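Q: I'm writing a short explainer about mannosyl-oligosaccharide 1,3-1,6-alpha-mannosidase for a general audience and would like to include a description of its predicted shape. Could you first generate the structure from this sequence?
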Amino acid sequence: MKLRKQVTVCGGAIFCVAVFSLYLMLDRVQHDPARRQSSGNFPRSQISVLQNRIEQLEQLLEENHQIISHIKDSVMELTDTGAVSPSGHLPFRSANGSWVLPFDGRPTFLAVKPQDCQFAVGNRGQADVQMLDVYSLLKFDNPDGGVWKQGFDITYEPDEWDNEPLQVFVVPHSHNDPGWVKTFDKYFTDQTQHILNNMVVKLAEDPRRKFIWSEISFFSKWWETADIHKQEAVRKLILGGQLEIVTGGWVMTDEANVHYFAMIDQLIEGHQWLERNLGITPRSGWAVDPFGHSATMPYLLKRANLTSMLIQRVHYSIKKHFASTRSLEFMWRQAWDTGANTDIFCHMMPFYSYDVPHTCGPDPKICCQFDFKRLPGGRINCPWKVPPKTVVEANIAERAHLLLDQYRKKSKLYRSKVLLVPLGDDFRYDKALEWDQQYINYQKLFDYMNTHPEMHVQAQFGTLTDYFNAVYKAHSIPQGSRPPEYPVLSGDFFAYADREDHYWTGYFTSRPFYKSLDRVIESHLRGAEILYSLAVANARHAGMEGRYPVSDYALLVDARRSVGLFQHHDAITGTAKENVVIDYGTRYVVLFNPVEQERLCAVTVLVNTVRVRILTEDGQTVPVQLSAQWSSASQMSAEVFEVKKRVFNKLSQHVGSTLHTSIKRKDDPREVKVQMQFMVYGTRPSKDKSGAYLFLPDGKAKPYNQKEPPVVRVVEGPLFSEVVAHYQHFQQTIRIHNVPGVDGLSVEITTMVDIRDQTNKELAMRLVTDIQSGDVFYTDLNGFQMQPRRHYLKLPLQANFYPMPSQAYIQDSHHRLTLHTAQSLGVSSLESGQLEVIMDRRLMQDDNRGLGQGLKDNKKTANRFRLLLERRSTGNKMTDSGTTSFPSILSHMTDAVLNHEVLALPVLPKRRGIPPLQTFAPLKSLLPCDFHLLNMRSIQSQDPHSPSPYTALILHRLGLDCGLEVQNLGFNCTTTQGQLNVSGLFKNLDLQLLQPMSLTLMHSSTPLANDSTISLDPMEISAFKLKLR
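A: Of course. Here's the predicted structure. Afterward I'll give you a sentence or two in plain language.
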């Protein structure tokens, strides 16, 4: 009773102080003589000031209301438990069996402005083509289209180009995978260095020759070994328009499994290298090999000031539909865009592949005859049994007309009379002979076409930007603008199928160990970037710049490039050879992870004694939970123990024979049934089987069975409780944290998978609930945005799986259930109320996509999740049928705590004892809780091994769904309508430059005043160059 009275008195006192403070403020506004007006009419400026004061007062009232509510809840909780410690120590058990933790005296509140909630329910910019509608429209059948097997017969009238000749741009290229069948270094030694060496020589032989290059990871390695004459020759070729760097990322990134942090980081790394060494800014994007395309990529390219882009690997039925409607070129708009600010011009290649047989026109048998590397006597030939012929005087007319016929047919699929014809393939042009074979024979054909006016064609070699500029010029519009009548599209291009029912959905999960490792390292890299930038700035501020080891910057650059390399579309995808995957793994550097928001969470430390006490820096005892470490399912270790410190429960669970059978929030009377099942897919017995790329199951999944019942272990304590079930091929841990705030509002799930003794099996975790979700579910794209999905019965099972880099959810009018993931995996919802995740795949054969091996190098892998149940408010149903959806603020924070864990780093004692530890809190004020600090990246100087005085601040303003009821987040959450004062953000540092930049820092705007307030729209990612001292 004494404790109850004390808390009640304390709460009442705070309430009185808050009310009295508000009264004084009101009184001051009303009676201050300076604010009185002599007449009854206020000037407009005074009205504006008064309106602002009223708004501030309303916000203050709301915050006080939140504080008082929190105090009331805390008092009620303590009252309900009848909590009296027998010894005066916390934590302790109350009379009703629950645990009581120290009362956290910091009240928290949620103050999200109503204006910040409007974005999720507002009107969108209208798109002509919405990919969800396209999926509903198409039959996804596969009739024989003739010479263009997956298409249709193309016809034209001979006089169509009489008034406006066809412009043809043949774009030579060489696709260089930074690791696939060979390692990065092996490819460079065997092929890439020769391609680039030959490029310098062969392009210089004729100014009409053109070439494009994409992967800066390879280009930078070559540049480091090139002599000054080669470097100058390259600069001359770029300046003369013969060589173009397209996209300019460190790699041609995968677009399914990658997180947007890493997509941006590898793009910055490539662009910064180009700016420092070549002084160029890429204009066009080139993505011919990622296995499906995400809507995130066009947004990032647009923010980096690219004006146009090209994609290739899209489902053959979608390509056919777009070709038939002449929609292969479109403005790609973000589904959440309220206008046209995110539009970027996109070209989709129409045929099966980016190789020469599938790029000159619809008939590969003819196009292959114009791949002059396949001339008789070479190492490769044409599968259609008709070889190329060297172009000579006797056959040039026939050859030119045959090729022009293909060009004309291909051009009929597009809206302009400008045609793009890529000329290349994987690791092409590595021999001087091929440069001569391709360039000399094509130049003869071009010369013939261009000197015969009756052919009505102007053909030439070109770069990618040459092509796009010609399209814009043909329509008399500026670069990057929308040509008249061209469609606007929103949505993405997953899942990809290249033929029949061969869906590339297996790679969403392939090699999950490395997918998990990638995300951990990304988090460490982000932490290292932020701490390094702040440490250097603080050293400068203290006049200790010379004593700080800036040479460590080289390690940071190496880490950036290693992480960047792994974003390659054959690395994080798990589709490289085993020895290549090992090579990727050895490139990682473990650093450190910072915490973005103030948060209360549990931290795990392993110790070798049961006598443990943890103190804060001012000597206060921190509550801990000591748990056993288990050497087997039922055997405890006698040497190692797990210490959990500082942690509150908002969820309850009932454990059945498997795992959860229901989830119930403490404040919600409605219970959601959740059954967790483990399922197994086999692969089909026919010729085509699942492999690293393809998911070709032998029917529906079958329940996982083992003869012996699982060993189930229950741990219960003041900071967390958990249930661990040991099966033969996996170990499932379900843990609930007893923490006030985000950590305690979701269920932590860890599945340790080991299927190394299996043959052609894929293990899935299926959540079966009573949520009435129908055929709709939601998956994220790259951790950046949510994409509504629909389960289609007209599609094969494997076609309904999608990438899940960070989360997926189902919902009905009452609840939303979100599965947050710490690693990218494949996900689907095959029935109403279900979510299903593929956990690991072990496949014994190649799936005939060039890799040449199966997936047999499985590792014991921990897949980590958070399961979040949220109650929907009544006004939130209208958004379910839309093309957009957004996580709640709690969901965003749950994603953050899962992907950016606090790491416990040991401190070695000095000779005279342990050094005193002090809190380093670099932020003067918290960021608004709809702002995500994506990175604070030290910008390189001309010396690549040392930092410049500048830092890139990259911010993302999150889109919020406010229609989900929010619990106590454990920190003060306020929004500001996208406003942020950067100069007031950092403690003990002076802001000397604040300059808006393009996303990859290559284009700058006029610097702002140092005390300026910056403004971001919802979903906007913006970059700023700072100088901190």
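A: For your explainer, you could say: The first strand starts at residue 92 and ends at 93.
Q: Perfect, that's easy to follow.
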